[in-house]
Input
Amino acid sequence: MLLPYYQEEQIEAGCDEAGRGCLAGPVFAAAVILPRDFYHEILTDSKQLKADERAELRVFIEKNAIAWAVAEVDHEEIDRINILNASFLAMHKALDLLTLRPEYILVDGNRFKSYRDLPHSCIVKGDGKFFSIAAASILAKTYRDDFMQAIALLHPEYDWCNNKGYPTIKHRNAVLQYGFSPYHRKTFRVTDPQLDLFRTVHVESDTI
Output
């Protein structure tokens, strides 16, 4: 069961990102402030949920959160500053957009660049431990998926409607065949020494 908050004294915002490991598209991040008594029986890490469950949870979160915001950093900025810094920037932008200023920040993962003068804690696998981070993971994931679905109509050859920009075998092969689209991150490696092995065992992620 997820916990409602990390500490009791300060207004707490949970942050998470989506799309960090993709070959194409922006990285999205969300920041969410939830009421102390918030509860949902299936809310957890977005990767553990089905698409229809994430869609339902997004509506519930947006309706019941005290404040929430979603921001993105595009592929060109990712290439300029690298994906780690772009992830931090996306989270900072989401925090900027909150209608209520948080006093404490919970971040999924093990690293974060301090936001203004606010204290923060990094929680490894935090999206499976705290409701606010899980809620942020749902918003970041669903908003990014919507974006990738939209641009998939412009470039169907990359199968973004299914892979959402992640490096599946089909996506990698399409890049090798057609080259980069205007949305690809050019600093990311398309080929991989393990590609032949993955093709042999027919492993493609269906959790994306």
